[in-house]
Design brief:
23% of the residues lie in helices and 27% in strands. The chain has two domains: 201 residues, Glycoside hydrolase, family 65, N-terminal domain (Beta-galactosidase, Chain A, domain 5), CATH 2.70.98.40; 458 residues, Glycosyltransferase (Alpha/alpha barrel). It has 14 helices and 36 strands. The strands form ten sheets. Strands 6-7-8-9-17-13-12-11-15 form a nine-stranded antiparallel β-sheet, with no helix packed on it. A four-stranded antiparallel β-sheet has the order 1-2-3-4. With 695 residues, it is of the alpha+beta class.
């Protein structure tokens, strides 16, 4: 019997070209087919669902293709019915794609080296369904949308619109296939554009077509046109993998920059393409935090953007509470159907606050950005938001009064899990059984401890009251955590993943424990134990840190949160090891991410399989993973920080360079390290000796 259930479309074989809020996803041949997640998406609307090119009546046979940066791609093919009757291809088609924040352009070059004249025709059939991103993610598509066709300067202009966006297609030098138009209305559900071609030996010609998207309703977030903030960053390293990983990641991060439409100076990193192309609390915070060695500008924009949406009231429908930092903001609410296509089981409002960790992480980012040189006046501007966020920790984060931060969806239609592992099956005991809420996650207690301590530092530094209270609050949380979260398992003692609704420790061994490193909630002995566990074979795959131990009952290497590898998760552990004075123990994790980078053409995806590197030559994709993903790309910040030994000394208020000894990665030089207005280049030789150049 055929499987008729809805299936999330896969992304791993698609070529993604983007400039927020536009993304183009096609097959490796460059063709955009009306299937799966393929399409041109603008602000979460698929404005083009089909763009298939034929020449001489057939599709070119693909010979090469892929992204050439973040916003460009190139595809090469051969129309095998044309040219000389020899083994050598003599007619070639090259499709060059460029994406801007509100447009897409393709230039198609046809070249002939045939011995005689080549006469033929190129055609491009297009259609649009205006499906929303939540529908596409659920495996749904909309009906083909009606086009309006007119002529301008002899060229066909094709237009279509919906309540959110109007799209205009311009095809220079094309004619319109007459069968595609309704003779009475010049409207149709698809359009075929035609270009006659005539090429002599050694000749080539260009064909161009483009899309322009214009919003017809105000959007909460928008693309940016400011210069790339990381143009000065350059890496040279003995390890040949590091430089291209940094270069591609910076290119992708630049393309993911967005801003709140109401405050265009408040730039942030959209979480990822295509599903999370907007402002996310947790994701945008972590991406900005990991990138602090390269400047605090994105951190400042992220802090302001989220503070501008900070909760002011109690609303169970949206999970809003006073002082709470939101989970995500979109133009409209998103409905997520059941697998069978029945009634919706989850609805997320346009502004949704269902996250337990974004608020403490916002406080941590404010502190870290301040230490990395965010101007004092910008920090001062955010102090009222800091006090409100601390107020949320005190008044709303612990609804049952047991002393731990926890979550429980009160509506039955929101996110069941509200930490970073937010899939419905992610919180499992070691035997594989699911935990019931309310859930208190281990890493969230670490975030809260760090937020309270660093919030106190900020209060002291800016002459505000309350620092002593928050240090006492943190100390009490630390003792409660030590008494309640540590369990004994196959790998020895370790922090439990969580406490369930009955306060029973969820005893699985997971990557969440790596997030505790560097927060201060662990003592030296506990830090050593966690460091050993995340370096061991149960959690470390050789390509990064598994989200769950391979010996636990819920483990699957292709589970979204129970066995896969998430680069940002590994990067947070690397960062925590370095902050704990154990950067040398991060070498295996760093090597794993570098190896994974090679396997994914240096564009690290959202996640990939947890299969052991000893058993496979290259990392196995998770088919539905976003790529690029902001916090995956931002993993380079943790790698560079650990290898250079960068640390802002709290006593001297200076940036120190203390590289770990015996690095297996050789010499490394990084230009574009920034602390406030100061710009530096840092070089570390093979002996671990460092040289800092300012200016």
């Amino acid at each position: 019997m055929a499987n008729t259930t809805l299936q999330q479309p896969w992304l791993h074989s698609l070529v993604s070209t983007l400039r927020a809020p536009t993304v183009v996803m096609t097959g490796g041949d460059g063709q955009l087919r009306a299937e799966g997640a393929q399409g041109v998406l603008y602000a979460d609307v698929r404005v083009l669902s089909l763009a298939v090119l034929t020449i001489d009546g057939v599709e070119p046979t693909p010979i090469a293709g892929g992204f050439a940066g973040a916003d460009t791609a190139r595809f090469s093919g051969v129309p095998r019915t044309l040219g000389d009757p020899s083994a050598d291809p003599t007619v070639r088609v090259d499709r060059l794609r460029a994406v801007a924040s509100d447009s897409m352009q393709e230039r198609i070059q046809i070249t002939s080296t045939a011995s005689g004249l080549v006469r033929t025709e190129m055609r491009l059939r297009v259609a649009a369904d205006h499906a929303r991103v939540a529908e596409i993610k659920s495996g749904l598509a909309g009906p083909d949308h009606a086009f309006e066709v007119r002529a301008e300067s002899g060229n066909p202009i094709v237009e279509w619109s919906d309540p959110l966006v109007r799209t205009t297609l311009t095809a220079t030098g094309a004619t319109l296939g007459q069968s595609d138009r309704d003779a009475q209305s010049d409207r149709g559900s698809s359009v075929e554009l035609c270009w006659p071609l005539e090429l002599g030996p050694g000749e080539s010609t260009w064909i161009e077509w483009s899309l322009q998207m214009t919003p017809t309703a105000a959007a909460p977030v928008t693309g940016v046109s400011t210069p790339d903030p990381w143009t000065e960053v350059a890496v040279r390293a003995d390890d040949h993998r590091l430089e291209p990983l940094v270069s591609q990641s910076l290119t992708d991060l630049d393309a993911l920059r967005m801003a709140r439409a109401s405050e265009p100076r408040d730039e942030f990193l959209a979480a990822g393409s295509p599903w999370f192309f907007t402002l996310f609390g947790r994701d945008s915070i972590w991406a900005a935090r990991l990138m602090l060695p390269f400047g605090s500008g994105i951190a400042g924009g992220t802090l302001r953007a989220l503070a501008g949406l900070q909760g002011t009231k109690v609303d169970a429908r949206t999970a809003e509470q006073p002082g709470k930092i939101p989970h995500e903001q979109r133009q409209s609410g998103s409905v997520h159907p059941t697998a069978s296509g029945g009634a919706a089981t989850m609805y997320l409002p346009p502004l949704y606050y269902g996250t337990v960790d974004a608020t403490p992480l916002w406080i941590c980012l404010l502190h870290d950005a301040w230490r990395w040189g965010l101007p004092a006046d910008e920090v001062r501007e955010l102090l009222p938001a800091l006090q409100r966020a601390l107020g949320w920790l005190r008044d709303y984060s612990d609804p049952d009064g047991d002393g731990f931060l926890e979550y429980l969806d009160a509506t039955g239609t929101g996110l069941a899990n509200q930490g970073w592992k937010d899939s419905g099956d992610s919180i499992r005991f070691a035997d594989g059984s699911l935990a019931e809420g309310p859930v208190a996650l281990c890493e969230v207690q670490g975030y809260a401890y760090e937020a309270a301590m660093h919030g106190a530092d900020l209060l002291d530094a800016f002459g505000l009251d309350g620092a002593k209270h928050w240090r006492n609050w943190a100390a009490a949380l630390r003792e409660r955590f030590r008494a309640s979260f540590w369990v004994s398992g196959r790998a020895g003692r370790h922090p439990a993943l969580a406490l369930d609704g009955n306060k029973k420790p969820v005893d699985s061994l997971t990557s969440n424990i790596g997030h505790l490193l560097g927060t201060g909630i662990l003592d030296d002995e506990e830090t050593a134990q966690v460091a050993a566990l995340i370096s061991g074979n149960e959690l470390s795959s050789g390509y990064g840190l598994r989200t769950m131990s391979r010996t636990d009952g819920g483990y699957s290497p292709l589970s979204y949160h129970c066995g896969s590898v998430w680069p940002h998760d590994t990067a947070i552990a690397i960062r925590g090891l370095a902050a704990s004075g154990r950067a040398g123990e991060s070498f295996g994790l760093i090597d794993g991410l570098l190896a994974a980078g090679v396997g994914f053409s240096y564009r690290l995806p959202e996640l990939f399989s947890g299969d052991s590197a000893s058993e496979i030559q290259w990392p196995v994709p998770y088919p539905a993973a976003c790529r690029p993903q902001a916090w995956s790309a931002a993993s380079i910040g943790a790698i560079v920080q650990a290898l250079l030994g960068l640390e802002v000394d709290s006593e001297s208020d200076k940036l120190e360079v203390r590289p770990p000894s015996n690095s297996p990665f050789g010499a490394i030089s990084v230009q574009g390290i920034r602390r406030g207005a100061k710009r530096m280049s840092v070089a570390v030789d093979t002996a671990g000796k460092s040289v800092i150049t300012t200016g």
